[in-house]
Write a structure and sequence with these properties.
The structure holds 2 protein chains of 2 kinds.
Chain A lengths: L1 E5 L4 E5 L9 E7 L8 H10 L12 E5 L8 H9 L2 E4 L2 E2 L42 E4 L7 E5 L8 H5 L5 E3 L6 E3 L9 H5 L5 E4 L4 E4 L4 H4 L6 H4 L6 E6 L10 H8 L4 E2 L10 E4 L6 H8 L3 H9 L5 H7 L11 E5 L2 E5 L5 E6 L5 E2 L3 E2 L4 E2 L5
Parallel strand pairs in A: 3-15
Antiparallel strand pairs in A: 1-2, 3-13, 4-8, 5-6, 9-10, 11-12, 14-15, 16-17, 17-18, 20-21
Chain B lengths: L2 H15 L3 H5 L25 H7 L3 E7 L7 E8 L2 E7 L24 H4 L2 H4 L8 E4 H8 L22 E4 L1 H18 L2 H10 L4 H5 L9 E5 L11 H17 L10 E3 L11 H6 L16 E5 L3 H4 L4 H9 L3 E6 L11 E4 L5 H14 L5 H7 L5 E3 L8 H5 L10 E4 L14 E4 H7 L2 E5 L4 E5 L19 E4 L5 E6 H9 L4 H8 L3 H13 L4 E5 L1 H4 L4 H14 L9 E4 L13 H4 L21 E3 L12 E2 L2 E2 L12 E5 L11 H8 L5 E6 L4 H4 L3 E4 L10 E4 L5 E5 L13 H16 L3 H4 L2 H4 L4 H9 L9 H9 L4 E2 L4 E2 L5 H5 L18 H5 L7 E2 L12 E2 L23 H4 L5 E2 L1 H6 L11 E4 L15 H4 L22 E4 L1 H6 L7 E6 L13 H7 L1 E7 L7 E3 L9 H9 L39 E3 L6 E3 L16 E8 L10 H4 L9 H7 ...
Parallel strand pairs in B: 6-7, 6-23, 7-20, 8-9, 8-18, 9-10, 12-13, 18-19, 23-24, 24-25, 31-32, 33-37, 34-36
Antiparallel strand pairs in B: 1-2, 2-3, 4-5, 4-25, 11-17, 14-15, 16-17, 21-22, 26-27, 27-28, 30-31, 33-40, 35-36, 35-40, 38-39
Classes of the chains: A alpha+beta, B alpha/beta.
Chain lengths: 375, 1146
């Protein structure tokens, strides 16, 4: 075990390999407030990458309803139960990470799902916590609630899958930090499946290898966002690169939201993997559950989000989400318009704060016809 | 080897190439010789294998097509092709480049437009339920070949009609077209003239129905292109076919073009219960609405019984982004819904009671005088006087003895015999002189002069003279003849009625907390004209839907929220407004006796077909009679249904309301059912002839569509994809039947009607439509298709983008399409007075209530004087389902709440409602594995429990405490039974054979978000058929899949339609309602399909639920997720800590 620094938990921690950060780290923001659980992302991924034999159950991208939804069944409850209650103190995590809680002879605390654990992939869909027995009125935060959590591989800075692989068949690409599982080297030991706390590695019984999300690297290499981002009609997603906090650039949309505004938070940072998908927490959910999922910053993040109406930088930047297939690496707001540029500095998208209203003349003399809203 | 097999193999081969088999098998052995990898975070030696994924991503070419189920979105999609096979789909990302003729342009906030159901289409284009070739039912073929033998009464022998159990015979398109043409001719001949009428009489059809045919046998032929806006030629073409049936009538009865009658066309928007029937009652036109992108221009959006984020998925972001930018989102639903989770406020109400909620909100606004008085004076009938003796509106002629005034406010009075211009070029409202004379002018009481004053329908908006009208209290008006009559302003009547709905009473009726009613009312009134009411299908699918519309529009008018970009009402269900292309008559109604074969010239139009509501077919093929009274208006009167031919429609049969009664008791009276389909639906199961139609990816004829929820005009472009099976375009199928009709009758015009289709020049028909449409003239079809092929739509040239119905009324002071030119909250016509609904009232739901159904909730009120049961010769306590529909009984709120549903004593204690969900667009594509496995909590792609009918299955959501009380565990199978008098079908007690597939069994899910007593089952799932039950019992895998057709049910037996019924409400069926015609600006009266027409009430069912089997695998023990302690009410200790957020301490 080595000692590495994990900024998300504000301290050094144990990890199987020494710290080595890629030149750039793939990262994503998911705005849970806009997720509609339509599963378009899920199908975009599935029809692109996992429609073969042995992959039927496999959802590299899935969307689950929290708190009663899981894929695979009980994935987080089970691990949290094994880890036991933990605490944060002033932004730093006091508890044990899954690497620190590993059983003797293992590299991470984990569990191996069985075949049937992948059944019911949309278990708990729309099930709320807090039984509604009759008429009711809920205002923020809602006393009965659920929210949607879209999940892909977190392309962690400290991946448990990578750490646990006895053949070292999993690696992080130095150019973008995408975590890949080498299909030609894997022998199907499934230590990665067991170790990944997010259960985002899957064993394919037909090929005898494990598989995982590849962040659509064939697209990402071309400057295009992955399939689950481009197909996201809730427009909740933005892909790009995240820096470490000390190197944050405000013109990088991901850095701005993660480090400058601190509105987007990692999922289960306490597990210790420094995951690189950052979630804007749902504003209607009471804080205790969210702290458990996203760490101590949720109250401030929600306050900032709820203030977006008067915070034009924030609402403008969030309006870029889903408006271009290209990866936006810098952004700028000019009045009512927000502009996104790609890695080469070329403008690839501009969006207004509000879509314009076009009003046409009641009569069009050129075509001698009325233009009407009640035809 | 069939084309089907070949292409399926090709697909599987392509899929395998897109999989891992190949490269994994060749895993390098060189690894063993390499150095150990020191730190894979930093360095990895051999990355050549990554190329495999890049290869997987690769494609050869792309093309675009339009995905257009009836979801209103019409997404242009990219198809990615490899080795000639479409391997995946994606958004075009070019909606942000849409422009109009003036250079207006959208932004990329419109992108992407797609959904998971669209993405799954690849598995349907090549799927094993494609209608790969035409099929004819064996018995039907034998009946045709035997020369249509019939009994004395005209009925075919039953041995030919073993529908849904029979064998299928493969046919060519030409053979199938010939058989359909023969049947159409024979059926029309059989029921023509006096002999035909005698036969129908012998078959016990209602006399009124027979008479309304006027001797034309073609009138028993019913045609339906489902939601024709979804394909102006391919879907709407069925109505053109109906029009050509006039040629057949002319031939059979030896008539000329002046007397001939065409076929009948079924309704669409109203058939789907999408029409908000109260909108035309208030506004005189189909529906008030706004494009959903308007959300961000509002201060408040009230999402009212609409599951916006599930049913309007590509436009959900407008709602969530509006909230982000400060719009307050208030969600009213009968549960904590998906959309509730996106609300700032979420109000949970009792199902079917939101008319009362709107009255309760209005009451607070009236009581506290918070209403927008200016809007009320300028745009509503609220200041106008009503006579208390007759309950009619007081007319100026009665008071002043004057003739109706001349009208000049954007209005043209059409003299008798004068022809109106074509709809698309009309500017002014066109009012027939007879109607103008009948309406007259109206009277208001001027407080400044303390006397009555006349007002015309011109006097609206800025022309309104009402400075200080009397709104409250009665007045005595002296008529021209000296008579003195007591009159009250509509406002006064409404205010008195609404006063019954004080917040506490509203809470008792609706369950909405009184405090919520008070605070929401004040919020809405605080800034008039800034609230959008987005009304959903939920409240619309109750019997009181017209009450709901009238009450909500009242609330909206009181707060100035009709006709403004950020202040309006919208009703969202179905893509219906064919008038968006109001040049459509150029296509559907081209005169078949006078066809224009020069493509450069417009067609000459004459409508020979007649419309009727399919709800009569759904109501056991008869109108509504209660006691001695016929409650269906003459203009609405249906004819007997002897033939049905439909395209793009599963709701008309496969997923029809009261499905099991329809297939068991109604279908045996129908002699031909023909279906155009590309996917073997429930309708195909019950059909006689199924034509194999092109999928959207294979269209070889371009087509047009537009939308009621977005501003785009879309062309379905022709695609380069070779047809996968033996399919043809829908419009070609019509042309084939036209040819066959020409051969059979010797009348070439049947064939000529489809000339440009046959020549591959359907564009000419489309260009005629564009040229003749108000909002499309100027566009060239060729340009639009080229853009569509590049993934770019154009903007419809409506007055505004986003579209806002009512904009012209507010901005241009243009009259509404009503008698008064105003929003009319009072309905003076006899039918409404008789029903006790001259005022906008609240009725209890007709079945989905714990209380006495369908009562009018009111205190004694001077203007509510309905005809009670006695007036119709029925007993007051007769609550049987037929009588209940015309039962006008008034009860106070307290009496209502204290009363009980007549079946409550027998254990029917659960409201059962059947809304639509995110995983299906109607029934598309829920039987696709990848979509199905995510549909609900019971998905399991490997079917560990072999009882599962498919990789998912139907389920009922039930409040956990209710389930516990019934001894039902989470995940158990349950029986659901509704009113035994007629559901699942009349006569089930003596018909075990059909009851086996008709009775509903499904899973029960503990659903904490639904109130006690309220259960929910999604509408989208395919129901059981005789074939699916046979498959479940005989197939080794136990799938509920028809062994002969591959039809796949999601139920072991029954479906959500086991509990529904066809319902008819008298106020949907008046002859007197004034409303705009379908196309253009002319105003007419009475029945109009999709405008003033029955809607049915498919969310009405009270049910009994009983445990059938345990939920554990193989019926042993608990369903696994409950056993694991992860389900509501079964939480393990860890789950309990988790739910409380207890794994992180403070």
């Amino acid at each position: 075990m080595a000692r590495v620094y994990n900024w998300q938990i504000g301290r050094d921690m144990s990890y199987w390999y020494p710290e080595s950060r890629p030149k750039r780290q793939f990262a994503a923001i998911f705005d849970t407030n806009k997720c509609i659980a339509c599963q378009t992302c899920t199908l975009a991924c599935k029809t692109t990458w996992t429609s073969g034999k042995g992959q039927e159950f496999m959802l590299w991208n899935n969307v689950e309803t929290k708190p009663y939804g899981f894929y695979p069944v009980g994935w987080d409850v089970k691990l949290l139960g094994e880890l036991g209650p933990q605490t944060w103190t002033q932004g730093a995590y006091d508890g044990r990470t899954i690497f620190e809680a590993a059983r003797p002879g293992e590299r991470a605390l984990g569990w191996l799902p069985t075949d049937i654990d992948y059944a019911n992939p949309n278990l708990g869909e729309d099930d709320c916590l807090g039984q509604v027995d009759g008429g009711a009125m809920f205002s923020l935060p809602h006393m009965s609630w659920f929210f949607y959590l879209a999940r892909i591989c977190n392309h962690c800075t400290y991946p448990a899958c990578l750490a646990s692989c006895p053949r070292a068949s999993i690696y992080k690409r130095p150019e973008d930090g995408i975590v890949l599982l080498d299909q030609s080297r894997c022998r199907g030991y499934q230590e990665c499946v067991k170790a990944c706390p997010y259960k985002k590695v899957y064993y394919n019984a037909m090929t005898g290898t494990s598989e995982k999300c590849i962040a659509c690297f064939p697209k990402f290499e071309m400057g295009l966002q992955p399939q689950c981002f481009v197909n996201c009609i809730g427009k909740i997603r933005l892909a790009g690169y995240v820096s470490t906090p000390d190197a944050a650039r405000p013109e990088n949309p991901i850095d701005y939201l993660v480090h400058v505004r601190k509105i987007a938070l990692p999922l289960f940072p306490q597990f210790g993997l420094e995951p690189n998908v950052y979630y804007i927490p749902p504003v209607h959910v009471p804080a205790p559950f969210l702290r458990q999922l996203f760490g101590p910053g949720v109250v401030e993040a929600i306050a900032a989000y709820r203030n977006a109406a008067t915070d034009l930088d924030l609402s403008g930047l969030l309006g870029l989400f889903g408006s271009t297939e290209q990866v936006v690496t810098s952004w700028r707001r000019e009045g009512e318009v927000t502009i996104g540029r790609n890695d080469r500095g070329v403008e690839v998208v501009r969006t207004p704060l509000r879509e314009p209203v076009h009003i046409r003349a009641a009569f069009d003399p050129e075509y001698a016809v009325a233009r009407t809203n009640c035809p | 080897m069939s084309t089907h097999d070949l292409n399926r193999r090709q697909f599987l081969a392509a899929a395998a190439r897109a999989g891992f088999g190949a490269f994994v098998a060749s895993a390098s052995s060189a690894w063993a010789l390499q150095d150990p990898i020191a730190n894979p975070l930093a360095v990895y030696p051999n990355r050549g294998w990554e190329q495999s994924y890049r290869d997987l991503w690769r494609y050869d070419s792309t093309f675009t097509f339009v995905c257009a189920p009836n979801d209103t979105h019409n997404c242009l999609l990219n198809a990615y092709v490899r080795d000639g096979v479409v391997t995946r789909l994606g958004p075009t990302m070019k909606y942000g480049e849409a422009t109009d003729l003036y250079g207006n342009r959208t932004t990329h906030r419109w992108d992407p437009r797609i959904c998971q159901k669209g993405l799954a289409l690849t598995r349907r284009f090549y799927g094993d339920r494609r209608v790969a070739h035409c099929r004819v039912r064996d018995g039907f073929k034998r009946w045709v070949e035997a020369g249509f033998p019939r009994g004395q009464d005209g009925r075919p022998p039953v041995e030919y009609f073993n529908r849904a159990r029979d064998q299928w015979v493969r046919m060519t398109h030409e053979e199938a077209a010939d058989i359909v043409a023969r049947a159409l001719v024979n059926i029309a001949e059989t029921y023509s003239g006096d002999a035909g009428a005698e036969r129908l009489k012998a078959q016990h059809y209602d006399d009124e129905m027979i008479q309304t045919m006027r001797g034309a046998g073609t009138q028993v032929l019913k045609f339906r292109g489902g939601m024709p806006l979804l394909g102006l030629t391919r879907v709407f073409g069925l109505y053109r076919m109906a029009n050509t049936m006039a040629l057949l009538d002319a031939r059979i009865r030896g008539l000329g073009p002046e007397q001939a009658v065409g076929g009948r066309g079924f309704d669409n928007y109203s058939w789907h219960t999408d029409l908000p029937p109260g909108h035309p009652m208030v506004t005189g036109q189909q529906t008030v609405e706004f494009d959903l992108s308007a959300a961000e221009h509002a201060r408040t959006v009230v999402v009212w019984g609409m599951n916006w984020i599930c049913t309007k998925m590509p436009d959900a972001h407008w709602l969530t982004e509006a909230r982000l930018k400060g719009t307050r989102i208030v969600v009213v639903a009968c549960e904590y819904s998906a959309t509730s989770s996106k609300g700032d406020d979420a109000i949970v109400v009792r199902p079917g009671t939101t008319p009362a909620l709107a009255l309760g909100l209005s009451h607070v606004i009236l009581r506290e005088k918070l209403y927008d008085a200016d809007y009320v004076r300028r745009f509503t009938d609220l200041p106008l006087l009503v006579r208390m003796d007759t309950l009619k509106m007081l007319r100026a002629s009665e008071v002043f003895g004057t003739e109706p005034a001349a009208l000049d406010n954007q209005t043209h009075v059409l003299a008798a015999g004068q022809a109106a211009p074509a709809p698309g070029v009309q500017r002014d409202q066109i009012v027939p002189a007879a109607l103008r004379a009948e309406w007259g002018d109206y009277v208001w009481w001027d407080r400044r002069t303390n006397g009555p004053r006349a007002i015309t329908r011109d006097d609206v908006g800025i022309r309104s003279p009402l400075a200080d009208p009397q709104l409250e209290g009665a007045v005595e008006v002296t008529l021209a003849d000296g008579q003195r009559v007591r009159c009250r302003p509509v406002f006064d009547l409404v205010q008195e009625y609404a006063a019954h709905f004080d917040p506490k009473t509203t809470e008792a009726l609706t369950w909405a907390p009184a405090a919520a009613v008070e605070s929401l009312a004040r919020h809405l009134a605080a800034v008039p004209g800034t609230t959008l009411f987005a009304m959903g299908m939920g409240p619309n699918q109750f019997f009181n839907n017209d009450n709901k519309d009238r009450d909500v529009l009242l609330l909206a008018a009181l707060t100035g929220n009709i006709g403004r970009v950020g202040g309006n009402v919208g009703s969202y269900a179905g893509n219906y407004r064919v008038a968006l292309l109001n040049g459509s008559p150029q296509w559907i109604n081209e005169n078949p006796f006078d066809l224009e074969l020069d493509p450069a010239r417009p067609a000459r139009v004459r409508q020979y077909w007649r419309a009727e509501s399919a709800h009569y077919y759904n109501h056991e093929d008869h109108p509504l009679r209660v006691g001695t009274r016929l409650l269906t208006g003459k203009t609405h009167m249906p004819t007997p249904t002897k033939s049905m031919w439909f395209a793009n429609a599963n709701s008309i049969l496969g997923n029809v309301k009261w499905h099991y009664n329809t297939v068991v008791n109604v279908l045996p009276r129908i002699e031909m059912i023909a279906v155009n389909e590309w996917w073997w639906s429930g309708s195909c199961e019950w059909a006689d002839v199924v034509f194999a139609a092109d999928s959207w990816a294979e269209l070889k004829h371009p087509d047009l569509t537009a939308s009621v929820t977005n501003p785009f005009l879309n062309v379905f472009p022709r695609t380069p994809l070779k047809r996968i099976f033996e399919s043809k375009g829908d419009v070609e199928i019509l042309a084939d039947v036209g040819d066959a009709m020409a051969r059979l009758t010797g009348d070439q015009r049947f064939s000529d009607a489809w000339t440009f289709v046959r020549r591959g020049e359907t564009v000419h028909y489309l260009q005629r439509i564009l040229d003749a449409s108000s909002n499309a003239r100027g566009y060239r079809i060729g340009d639009l298709e080229t853009k569509a092929q590049a993934g770019v739509p154009v903007l419809l040239m409506s007055r505004t983008s986003p579209k806002v119905v009512g904009f012209e009324q507010v901005v241009d002071s243009r009259p509404w399409y009503t008698k008064t030119g105003r929003l009319e909250f009072y309905r003076e016509e006899d039918e409404f007075i008789e029903a006790g609904e001259n005022l906008p009232v609240h009725r209890e739901p007709i079945d989905s209530t714990f209380h006495e159904p369908n009562v009018i909730v009111a205190r004694a009120h001077e203007a509510i004087r309905p005809a009670g049961p006695e007036a119709y010769g029925v007993a007051r306590d007769d609550l049987s389902n037929e009588v209940r529909q015309g039962r006008n009984v008034v009860k106070t709120a307290a009496e209502t709440v204290a009363s009980a549903h007549p079946l409550a004593k027998d254990g029917y204690r659960f409201v059962f409602h059947t809304p639509k969900y995110r995983h299906g667009s109607h029934t598309t594509p829920i039987d696709t594995d990848m979509v199905a496995m995510l549909f609900g909590p019971f998905g399991d792609v490997y079917r560990h429990d072999r009882r599962m009918p498919f990789v998912t299955e139907g389920y009922v959501d039930i409040n956990p405490s209710d389930a516990k009380d019934l001894g039902i565990d989470d995940g158990d199978y349950v029986w659901i039974d509704s009113d035994p008098s007629d559901r699942p079908f009349r006569g089930w007690q003596k018909n075990k054979r059909d009851y086996e597939f008709a009775r509903l069994i499904c899973r029960a899910r503990y659903y904490p978000g639904t109130p006690r007593g309220v259960t929910r089952m999604w509408f989208n799932m395919y129901g059981a058929t005789p074939g699916s039950v046979e498959g479940r019992k005989t197939r080794p895998d136990g799938l509920a899949r028809n062994p002969r057709t591959n039809y796949q049910a999601m139920f072991r037996s029954g479906s959500h339609q086991s509990a529904t019924r066809g319902w008819l409400k008298p106020t949907w069926m008046t002859d007197s309602l004034v409303r705009k015609e379908m196309f253009g600006q002319a105003i007419g009266q009475g029945f109009l399909p999709d405008v003033h027409c029955p809607t049915g009430a498919p969310r009405e069912a009270i049910v009994k639920i009983s445990r059938a089997e345990p939920g554990g695998i193989g019926a042993r023990g608990l369903w696994r997720p409950a056993e694991l302690g992860l389900r509501p009410r079964y939480e393990s200790q860890a789950m309990t800590i988790y739910l409380a957020g207890g794994f992180i301490g403070d």
